[in-house]
Amino acid sequence: MSKLFTILLTILVLTTAKAQTAEKDTTLERVKIRTSFAKSYFGVDGFSTSGGTTQYATPTGLQTVSFSGTTSPRILLGGTHFWGHADFYVAIPVARLGGEAPAGLKSVFYGEGVETGFRVFPWAVEPGKVRPFVGMSLKGAAFGQVNNEPTRTYKTVPSVARTIFPYQAGLVYAGKKFLLQAGAYYQRKSDYQYPISRTEYASVKISPWSFNVGMSYWINTNGGLASKNGVNYMKNGVKKLAAKNRLNCWYVGIGPSGTFEMTKSEYVKEKYPFLRQESPGTLIPDLTAGRYFHKPDINVGVSHRRFRYGSSGYNAKLNYDRRSVMLETYKFLGDYHGFVPYVGPTLAYENLTFTDTDGVSVKTFTAKKMALGIIVGWDIRTSRSETWLLRTNLRYTPNLHLKAEGKKVMFDQMEFNFIQFIWFAGRGKALRTN
Prior knowledge:
Number of domains: 2
Helix content: 10-25%
CATH class of the largest domain: Mainly Beta
Strand content: over 45%
Low-confidence stretches: 1-20
Protein backbone atom coordinates (compact mmCIF):
# COMPACT_ATOMS: atom_id res chain seq x y z
CA MET A 1 0.00 0.00 0.00
CA SER A 2 2.96 2.39 0.41
CA LYS A 3 3.00 3.14 -3.33
CA LEU A 4 -0.67 4.11 -3.26
CA PHE A 5 -0.15 6.30 -0.20
CA THR A 6 2.82 8.02 -1.89
CA ILE A 7 0.78 8.92 -4.96
CA LEU A 8 -2.22 10.04 -2.91
CA LEU A 9 0.04 12.22 -0.77
CA THR A 10 1.59 13.75 -3.88
CA ILE A 11 -1.85 14.58 -5.24
CA LEU A 12 -2.95 16.14 -1.96
CA VAL A 13 0.18 18.28 -1.81
CA LEU A 14 -0.26 19.41 -5.39
CA THR A 15 -3.87 20.42 -4.83
CA THR A 16 -2.67 22.89 -2.18
CA ALA A 17 -0.37 24.51 -4.76
CA LYS A 18 -1.45 26.96 -7.43
CA ALA A 19 -2.34 25.29 -10.70
CA GLN A 20 -1.13 26.76 -13.99
CA THR A 21 -3.53 26.06 -16.84
CA ALA A 22 -2.35 25.47 -20.38
CA GLU A 23 -4.32 28.48 -21.67
CA LYS A 24 -2.13 30.80 -19.57
CA ASP A 25 1.11 29.49 -21.06
CA THR A 26 0.89 31.69 -24.15
CA THR A 27 4.36 33.24 -24.41
CA LEU A 28 7.41 31.52 -25.86
CA GLU A 29 9.13 31.59 -22.47
CA ARG A 30 6.12 30.00 -20.75
CA VAL A 31 5.71 27.36 -23.46
CA LYS A 32 9.40 26.41 -23.12
CA ILE A 33 8.89 25.93 -19.38
CA ARG A 34 5.82 23.80 -20.05
CA THR A 35 7.34 21.59 -22.73
CA SER A 36 10.51 21.00 -20.71
CA PHE A 37 8.57 19.74 -17.68
CA ALA A 38 8.91 16.11 -18.84
CA LYS A 39 11.26 14.31 -21.25
CA SER A 40 10.72 10.68 -22.26
CA TYR A 41 13.42 8.11 -22.96
CA PHE A 42 13.83 4.54 -24.21
CA GLY A 43 16.82 2.30 -23.60
CA VAL A 44 18.39 -0.83 -22.14
CA ASP A 45 20.36 -1.74 -19.04
CA GLY A 46 22.02 -4.70 -17.35
CA PHE A 47 20.78 -5.60 -13.87
CA SER A 48 22.92 -7.87 -11.66
CA THR A 49 22.09 -9.61 -8.39
CA SER A 50 24.77 -10.72 -5.91
CA GLY A 51 23.72 -14.28 -5.06
CA GLY A 52 23.21 -15.56 -1.54
CA THR A 53 23.02 -18.73 0.54
CA THR A 54 20.48 -21.54 0.81
CA GLN A 55 20.09 -24.97 2.38
CA TYR A 56 19.22 -28.45 1.18
CA ALA A 57 18.41 -31.73 2.92
CA THR A 58 21.04 -34.42 3.51
CA PRO A 59 20.85 -37.66 5.53
CA THR A 60 22.56 -35.82 8.42
CA GLY A 61 20.49 -32.64 8.28
CA LEU A 62 20.41 -29.35 6.37
CA GLN A 63 23.53 -28.34 4.45
CA THR A 64 24.21 -24.61 3.74
CA VAL A 65 25.67 -23.62 0.35
CA SER A 66 26.29 -20.40 -1.54
CA PHE A 67 24.92 -19.58 -4.99
CA SER A 68 26.07 -16.96 -7.46
CA GLY A 69 24.24 -13.92 -8.79
CA THR A 70 22.69 -13.41 -12.22
CA THR A 71 22.60 -10.64 -14.82
CA SER A 72 19.43 -9.64 -16.68
CA PRO A 73 19.29 -7.38 -19.74
CA ARG A 74 16.24 -5.11 -19.42
CA ILE A 75 14.24 -2.76 -21.62
CA LEU A 76 13.82 0.71 -20.10
CA LEU A 77 10.95 3.11 -20.69
CA GLY A 78 10.62 6.24 -18.63
CA GLY A 79 10.80 9.98 -18.38
CA THR A 80 12.29 12.75 -16.32
CA HIS A 81 9.75 15.08 -14.69
CA PHE A 82 9.73 18.37 -12.77
CA TRP A 83 12.36 19.86 -15.11
CA GLY A 84 14.88 17.10 -14.51
CA HIS A 85 14.46 16.71 -10.75
CA ALA A 86 12.58 13.36 -10.86
CA ASP A 87 12.58 10.23 -12.98
CA PHE A 88 9.70 7.75 -13.28
CA TYR A 89 10.45 4.55 -15.19
CA VAL A 90 9.66 0.90 -15.88
CA ALA A 91 12.34 -1.78 -16.49
CA ILE A 92 11.30 -5.05 -18.16
CA PRO A 93 13.70 -8.07 -17.93
CA VAL A 94 14.05 -10.05 -21.16
CA ALA A 95 16.49 -12.79 -20.06
CA ARG A 96 18.49 -14.09 -17.11
CA LEU A 97 22.16 -15.03 -17.51
CA GLY A 98 24.44 -16.96 -15.13
CA GLY A 99 23.40 -18.46 -11.82
CA GLU A 100 25.07 -21.88 -11.80
CA ALA A 101 23.76 -24.29 -9.15
CA PRO A 102 26.07 -25.13 -6.23
CA ALA A 103 27.04 -28.69 -5.37
CA GLY A 104 24.15 -30.65 -3.91
CA LEU A 105 21.45 -28.88 -5.92
CA LYS A 106 20.24 -29.47 -9.45
CA SER A 107 19.27 -25.82 -10.00
CA VAL A 108 18.76 -22.55 -8.16
CA PHE A 109 16.62 -19.65 -9.31
CA TYR A 110 16.49 -16.11 -8.00
CA GLY A 111 14.98 -13.42 -10.18
CA GLU A 112 13.54 -9.95 -9.88
CA GLY A 113 10.73 -9.05 -12.26
CA VAL A 114 9.30 -5.94 -13.90
CA GLU A 115 10.43 -2.90 -11.94
CA THR A 116 8.60 0.42 -11.60
CA GLY A 117 10.23 3.18 -9.65
CA PHE A 118 11.23 6.76 -9.19
CA ARG A 119 14.49 8.63 -8.69
CA VAL A 120 15.00 12.08 -7.23
CA PHE A 121 17.80 14.43 -8.36
CA PRO A 122 18.80 17.20 -5.92
CA TRP A 123 20.39 18.94 -8.92
CA ALA A 124 18.39 18.79 -12.14
CA VAL A 125 19.51 16.52 -14.99
CA GLU A 126 21.20 18.69 -17.63
CA PRO A 127 23.19 17.95 -20.80
CA GLY A 128 26.90 17.61 -20.07
CA LYS A 129 26.42 17.20 -16.32
CA VAL A 130 26.86 14.25 -13.92
CA ARG A 131 24.05 14.15 -11.37
CA PRO A 132 23.57 11.98 -8.25
CA PHE A 133 20.20 10.47 -7.39
CA VAL A 134 18.37 8.53 -4.70
CA GLY A 135 15.19 6.56 -5.23
CA MET A 136 12.97 3.61 -4.57
CA SER A 137 11.29 0.99 -6.74
CA LEU A 138 8.61 -1.68 -6.63
CA LYS A 139 8.87 -5.16 -8.18
CA GLY A 140 8.35 -8.83 -7.61
CA ALA A 141 11.18 -11.14 -6.50
CA ALA A 142 11.12 -14.95 -6.51
CA PHE A 143 13.38 -17.78 -5.33
CA GLY A 144 13.25 -21.49 -6.09
CA GLN A 145 15.55 -24.50 -6.01
CA VAL A 146 15.52 -28.13 -7.14
CA ASN A 147 17.33 -30.78 -5.10
CA ASN A 148 19.33 -33.65 -6.56
CA GLU A 149 16.72 -36.30 -5.75
CA PRO A 150 16.69 -39.22 -8.22
CA THR A 151 13.35 -40.45 -6.84
CA ARG A 152 11.43 -37.17 -7.23
CA THR A 153 7.69 -37.72 -7.82
CA TYR A 154 6.81 -34.06 -8.43
CA LYS A 155 7.20 -32.03 -11.62
CA THR A 156 7.49 -28.55 -10.12
CA VAL A 157 8.79 -26.90 -6.97
CA PRO A 158 7.33 -23.85 -5.23
CA SER A 159 8.57 -20.36 -5.92
CA VAL A 160 8.92 -18.25 -2.78
CA ALA A 161 8.00 -14.77 -3.89
CA ARG A 162 7.20 -11.35 -2.53
CA THR A 163 6.83 -7.75 -3.60
CA ILE A 164 9.94 -5.79 -2.67
CA PHE A 165 10.70 -2.07 -2.35
CA PRO A 166 14.49 -1.63 -2.70
CA TYR A 167 16.23 1.68 -2.13
CA GLN A 168 18.65 2.89 -4.75
CA ALA A 169 21.35 5.50 -5.35
CA GLY A 170 23.65 6.28 -8.23
CA LEU A 171 24.79 8.69 -10.91
CA VAL A 172 23.41 9.90 -14.24
CA TYR A 173 25.20 11.61 -17.11
CA ALA A 174 22.97 13.33 -19.68
CA GLY A 175 23.93 14.14 -23.24
CA LYS A 176 21.84 16.00 -25.78
CA LYS A 177 20.56 12.74 -27.24
CA PHE A 178 21.28 10.10 -24.61
CA LEU A 179 21.31 9.31 -20.90
CA LEU A 180 23.85 7.12 -19.05
CA GLN A 181 22.95 5.72 -15.63
CA ALA A 182 24.67 3.53 -13.04
CA GLY A 183 23.32 2.65 -9.63
CA ALA A 184 23.15 0.31 -6.66
CA TYR A 185 20.07 -1.14 -4.93
CA TYR A 186 19.68 -2.13 -1.30
CA GLN A 187 16.86 -4.39 -0.10
CA ARG A 188 16.36 -4.49 3.67
CA LYS A 189 14.31 -7.68 3.93
CA SER A 190 16.13 -10.47 2.13
CA ASP A 191 15.48 -13.59 4.26
CA TYR A 192 13.19 -16.36 2.99
CA GLN A 193 11.91 -19.65 4.35
CA TYR A 194 11.95 -22.01 1.39
CA PRO A 195 9.88 -25.24 1.48
CA ILE A 196 12.15 -28.14 0.50
CA SER A 197 9.12 -30.40 0.96
CA ARG A 198 5.50 -29.90 1.92
CA THR A 199 6.47 -29.81 5.59
CA GLU A 200 10.18 -28.92 5.84
CA TYR A 201 11.77 -25.50 5.34
CA ALA A 202 15.26 -24.20 4.61
CA SER A 203 16.67 -20.77 5.41
CA VAL A 204 17.56 -18.63 2.39
CA LYS A 205 19.54 -15.40 2.58
CA ILE A 206 19.65 -13.22 -0.53
CA SER A 207 22.40 -10.62 -0.75
CA PRO A 208 20.71 -7.23 -0.21
CA TRP A 209 22.85 -5.58 -2.90
CA SER A 210 22.23 -5.43 -6.64
CA PHE A 211 23.51 -3.14 -9.40
CA ASN A 212 22.64 -1.80 -12.83
CA VAL A 213 24.24 0.11 -15.70
CA GLY A 214 22.22 1.42 -18.63
CA MET A 215 21.94 3.73 -21.60
CA SER A 216 18.83 5.41 -22.97
CA TYR A 217 17.94 7.80 -25.79
CA TRP A 218 15.73 10.84 -25.41
CA ILE A 219 12.37 10.80 -27.22
CA ASN A 220 10.90 14.13 -28.34
CA THR A 221 7.17 13.95 -27.59
CA ASN A 222 6.27 17.66 -27.63
CA GLY A 223 6.36 17.93 -31.42
CA GLY A 224 8.39 21.15 -31.51
CA LEU A 225 5.93 23.13 -29.40
CA ALA A 226 8.75 25.14 -27.83
CA SER A 227 8.69 27.56 -30.78
CA LYS A 228 6.71 30.49 -32.15
CA ASN A 229 4.50 28.04 -34.03
CA GLY A 230 3.98 26.19 -30.77
CA VAL A 231 2.84 29.41 -29.11
CA ASN A 232 0.28 29.90 -31.88
CA TYR A 233 -0.84 26.29 -31.47
CA MET A 234 -1.32 26.80 -27.75
CA LYS A 235 -3.35 29.94 -28.38
CA ASN A 236 -5.49 28.66 -31.23
CA GLY A 237 -5.78 24.90 -30.68
CA VAL A 238 -8.58 25.07 -28.12
CA LYS A 239 -10.49 27.59 -30.26
CA LYS A 240 -10.26 25.30 -33.30
CA LEU A 241 -11.46 22.28 -31.34
CA ALA A 242 -14.30 24.30 -29.86
CA ALA A 243 -15.39 25.39 -33.34
CA LYS A 244 -15.35 21.75 -34.50
CA ASN A 245 -17.06 20.50 -31.32
CA ARG A 246 -14.02 18.35 -30.39
CA LEU A 247 -13.16 19.65 -26.92
CA ASN A 248 -15.41 16.94 -25.51
CA CYS A 249 -14.33 13.81 -27.34
CA TRP A 250 -13.94 10.04 -27.26
CA TYR A 251 -10.60 8.45 -26.48
CA VAL A 252 -8.98 5.00 -26.59
CA GLY A 253 -5.85 3.81 -24.84
CA ILE A 254 -3.50 0.87 -24.38
CA GLY A 255 -0.53 0.15 -22.15
CA PRO A 256 1.11 -2.57 -20.01
CA SER A 257 0.11 -2.99 -16.35
CA GLY A 258 2.11 -4.83 -13.73
CA THR A 259 0.11 -6.47 -10.93
CA PHE A 260 1.19 -7.19 -7.37
CA GLU A 261 -0.46 -9.30 -4.69
CA MET A 262 -1.66 -7.21 -1.74
CA THR A 263 -3.18 -9.80 0.62
CA LYS A 264 -2.39 -13.46 1.26
CA SER A 265 -5.28 -15.89 0.79
CA GLU A 266 -6.37 -17.62 3.99
CA TYR A 267 -7.42 -20.67 1.93
CA VAL A 268 -3.85 -21.07 0.66
CA LYS A 269 -2.21 -20.33 4.02
CA GLU A 270 -4.24 -23.04 5.74
CA LYS A 271 -4.38 -25.76 3.06
CA TYR A 272 -1.04 -25.23 1.28
CA PRO A 273 1.35 -23.52 3.72
CA PHE A 274 4.29 -24.39 1.45
CA LEU A 275 2.69 -22.17 -1.24
CA ARG A 276 1.70 -19.33 1.07
CA GLN A 277 4.78 -17.26 0.22
CA GLU A 278 3.98 -17.30 -3.47
CA SER A 279 3.07 -13.82 -4.68
CA PRO A 280 0.92 -14.19 -7.80
CA GLY A 281 1.28 -11.32 -10.23
CA THR A 282 1.65 -10.77 -13.93
CA LEU A 283 2.17 -8.23 -16.72
CA ILE A 284 -1.07 -7.63 -18.64
CA PRO A 285 -2.40 -5.39 -21.44
CA ASP A 286 -4.64 -2.60 -20.14
CA LEU A 287 -7.28 -1.52 -22.68
CA THR A 288 -9.43 1.54 -22.10
CA ALA A 289 -11.95 3.73 -23.92
CA GLY A 290 -14.15 6.58 -22.81
CA ARG A 291 -15.28 10.16 -23.04
CA TYR A 292 -13.34 13.26 -21.98
CA PHE A 293 -15.30 16.32 -20.84
CA HIS A 294 -13.28 19.50 -21.33
CA LYS A 295 -14.91 22.13 -19.11
CA PRO A 296 -15.15 20.08 -15.87
CA ASP A 297 -11.88 18.29 -16.81
CA ILE A 298 -13.31 14.81 -16.16
CA ASN A 299 -12.88 11.41 -17.79
CA VAL A 300 -15.55 8.73 -17.84
CA GLY A 301 -14.29 5.48 -19.26
CA VAL A 302 -14.32 1.71 -19.34
CA SER A 303 -11.24 -0.49 -18.97
CA HIS A 304 -10.83 -4.20 -19.62
CA ARG A 305 -8.14 -6.39 -18.13
CA ARG A 306 -7.70 -10.14 -17.80
CA PHE A 307 -5.41 -11.56 -15.13
CA ARG A 308 -4.18 -15.14 -15.36
CA TYR A 309 -1.48 -16.44 -13.04
CA GLY A 310 -0.75 -19.31 -10.70
CA SER A 311 1.55 -21.10 -8.31
CA SER A 312 2.59 -24.73 -8.06
CA GLY A 313 4.84 -27.18 -6.27
CA TYR A 314 5.02 -30.74 -4.91
CA ASN A 315 2.06 -31.97 -7.00
CA ALA A 316 -0.18 -29.01 -6.08
CA LYS A 317 -1.20 -26.34 -8.58
CA LEU A 318 -3.29 -23.20 -7.98
CA ASN A 319 -4.66 -21.20 -10.93
CA TYR A 320 -6.25 -17.74 -10.73
CA ASP A 321 -8.34 -16.15 -13.49
CA ARG A 322 -9.82 -12.67 -13.12
CA ARG A 323 -11.77 -10.93 -15.89
CA SER A 324 -12.56 -7.33 -15.05
CA VAL A 325 -14.67 -4.77 -16.90
CA MET A 326 -14.37 -1.53 -14.99
CA LEU A 327 -16.27 1.77 -15.15
CA GLU A 328 -13.97 4.53 -13.95
CA THR A 329 -14.69 8.22 -13.43
CA TYR A 330 -11.95 10.57 -12.35
CA LYS A 331 -11.41 14.29 -11.93
CA PHE A 332 -8.21 16.07 -12.93
CA LEU A 333 -6.94 18.16 -10.03
CA GLY A 334 -5.27 21.07 -11.75
CA ASP A 335 -2.55 21.54 -14.35
CA TYR A 336 0.96 22.03 -12.97
CA HIS A 337 2.86 23.03 -16.13
CA GLY A 338 1.84 19.81 -17.86
CA PHE A 339 1.71 17.49 -14.86
CA VAL A 340 -2.02 16.80 -14.38
CA PRO A 341 -2.92 14.49 -11.46
CA TYR A 342 -6.31 12.82 -11.09
CA VAL A 343 -8.26 10.64 -8.70
CA GLY A 344 -11.64 8.94 -8.79
CA PRO A 345 -13.80 5.91 -7.97
CA THR A 346 -14.15 2.71 -9.98
CA LEU A 347 -16.98 0.21 -10.27
CA ALA A 348 -16.12 -3.16 -11.77
CA TYR A 349 -17.90 -6.30 -12.87
CA GLU A 350 -15.55 -9.08 -11.78
CA ASN A 351 -15.62 -12.66 -13.06
CA LEU A 352 -13.35 -14.68 -10.74
CA THR A 353 -12.22 -18.30 -11.07
CA PHE A 354 -9.90 -20.25 -8.77
CA THR A 355 -8.80 -23.82 -9.54
CA ASP A 356 -7.17 -26.02 -6.89
CA THR A 357 -5.37 -29.09 -8.27
CA ASP A 358 -3.83 -31.49 -5.74
CA GLY A 359 -2.53 -34.59 -7.48
CA VAL A 360 -5.56 -35.97 -9.37
CA SER A 361 -8.07 -33.96 -7.31
CA VAL A 362 -9.37 -30.84 -9.06
CA LYS A 363 -11.68 -28.27 -7.44
CA THR A 364 -12.95 -25.13 -9.16
CA PHE A 365 -14.53 -22.14 -7.42
CA THR A 366 -16.15 -19.18 -9.18
CA ALA A 367 -17.75 -15.86 -8.31
CA LYS A 368 -19.30 -13.01 -10.27
CA LYS A 369 -19.66 -9.75 -8.41
CA MET A 370 -19.56 -5.97 -8.49
CA ALA A 371 -16.63 -4.29 -6.72
CA LEU A 372 -15.69 -0.74 -5.76
CA GLY A 373 -12.15 0.60 -6.05
CA ILE A 374 -10.00 3.66 -6.63
CA ILE A 375 -7.90 4.95 -9.50
CA VAL A 376 -5.16 7.58 -9.17
CA GLY A 377 -2.49 8.80 -11.55
CA TRP A 378 -1.48 11.64 -13.83
CA ASP A 379 -1.42 12.77 -17.45
CA ILE A 380 1.49 14.52 -19.15
CA ARG A 381 -0.59 17.18 -20.90
CA THR A 382 1.33 19.71 -22.96
CA SER A 383 -1.82 21.56 -24.07
CA ARG A 384 -5.63 21.37 -23.75
CA SER A 385 -5.81 20.52 -27.46
CA GLU A 386 -3.73 17.33 -27.36
CA THR A 387 -4.40 14.73 -30.06
CA TRP A 388 -2.61 12.13 -27.90
CA LEU A 389 -0.82 11.96 -24.57
CA LEU A 390 0.87 9.62 -22.08
CA ARG A 391 -1.00 8.58 -18.94
CA THR A 392 0.06 6.81 -15.73
CA ASN A 393 -2.55 5.04 -13.60
CA LEU A 394 -2.71 2.93 -10.49
CA ARG A 395 -5.83 0.92 -9.60
CA TYR A 396 -6.76 -0.89 -6.44
CA THR A 397 -9.91 -2.85 -5.60
CA PRO A 398 -9.80 -3.57 -1.84
CA ASN A 399 -10.85 -6.95 -0.45
CA LEU A 400 -11.70 -8.47 -3.84
CA HIS A 401 -12.06 -12.20 -3.23
CA LEU A 402 -14.10 -15.34 -3.66
CA LYS A 403 -14.89 -18.03 -1.10
CA ALA A 404 -13.46 -21.55 -1.37
CA GLU A 405 -14.70 -23.96 1.27
CA GLY A 406 -15.59 -20.97 3.43
CA LYS A 407 -12.12 -19.40 3.18
CA LYS A 408 -11.07 -16.31 1.25
CA VAL A 409 -9.05 -16.52 -1.97
CA MET A 410 -7.78 -13.01 -2.67
CA PHE A 411 -7.80 -11.22 -6.05
CA ASP A 412 -7.00 -7.72 -4.74
CA GLN A 413 -3.93 -7.02 -6.84
CA MET A 414 -2.43 -3.57 -7.11
CA GLU A 415 -2.31 -2.60 -10.79
CA PHE A 416 0.35 -0.14 -11.93
CA ASN A 417 0.32 1.08 -15.53
CA PHE A 418 3.34 3.31 -15.90
CA ILE A 419 2.82 4.47 -19.50
CA GLN A 420 -0.49 4.23 -21.34
CA PHE A 421 -0.88 5.74 -24.80
CA ILE A 422 -4.12 7.74 -25.10
CA TRP A 423 -5.52 8.88 -28.49
CA PHE A 424 -8.35 11.43 -28.81
CA ALA A 425 -10.64 10.57 -31.72
CA GLY A 426 -11.23 13.31 -34.29
CA ARG A 427 -8.98 15.97 -32.80
CA GLY A 428 -6.17 15.61 -35.32
CA LYS A 429 -8.48 16.14 -38.30
CA ALA A 430 -10.18 19.08 -36.58
CA LEU A 431 -6.84 20.83 -36.00
CA ARG A 432 -5.65 20.28 -39.59
CA THR A 433 -8.74 21.81 -41.20
CA ASN A 434 -9.67 25.51 -41.28
